[in-house]
Amino acid sequence: INPYNLNYMFDSGVERKIGIHSISSTVYYNDIKMNLILSYDKVKNIKNQRLPFPLPENGDESNFEYGLDFQYNLNQAEFNISYLVKKNIPILKIPDFNISESNVHVIGLNLLYIYDEITMRMENAIFLAKNNEKFYQGIFQLEFPPIFDFTIGSQLFGTHNIKNSAKGIYSIGSPIFLLTDTSPLLVTSLSRLFNDDTIELKILIMSEILDGYGSSLGTEITYNITDNLKTSINYANFLKGNSQSTFNNLSNYSNIKLSLNYFF
Fold first, then answer.
1. d(CA 99, CA 3)
2. Are the C-beta atoms of 81 and 40 separated by less than 8 Å?
């Protein structure tokens, strides 16, 4: 439902999301959780003008959108199926980067399974658009127990144009999917806290694993000066692959960012 601030497309968590007006209702029945979301608001992504290729951007008109979600809980597993209707979704055509729009119906199938201290997640979405266009996106994620006090997670992002029927990549879900047209993308993250949790180190590695073979390495160090004030330094380096790699467009986007944040 929520659009993205694509200035933070390589970050994780809710920081990437833009708040909109919506209504959410949740009903619990035994081991079943049912959720209904309704929205009538201006749903528009914020683009990052510095990125060296155009990003899909929604129109700024108000649209009625809705979603249904059913979740079934087991002892060590959780199964989820969802249905979402999105209006005027931008579609990014690669390699020419033209953008068109379409109303999209999204069917989601997700699975969470916990084995010992390892958490496995599968998130899948099938997009149905006009003119019988069909498109698939999926994530497979593993979260491991801490090793040398490092929290380790690994995600595999993949896309598939079903019968080559879709015009391009749909801009729903993680913005990282916009980099998966050439190859599935393996993302590995490591994080650790130091000095009584006042310092946090994060390392992020992304690689095209089947074609293209572009990659990137990112590090971030955050220091909590006080409860309301923190500073951070972030370094991101994008490495070119072969002639097919989407990362070739990002090599000049390598950057160092310093920030100071105050919370009130």
1. 17
2. no
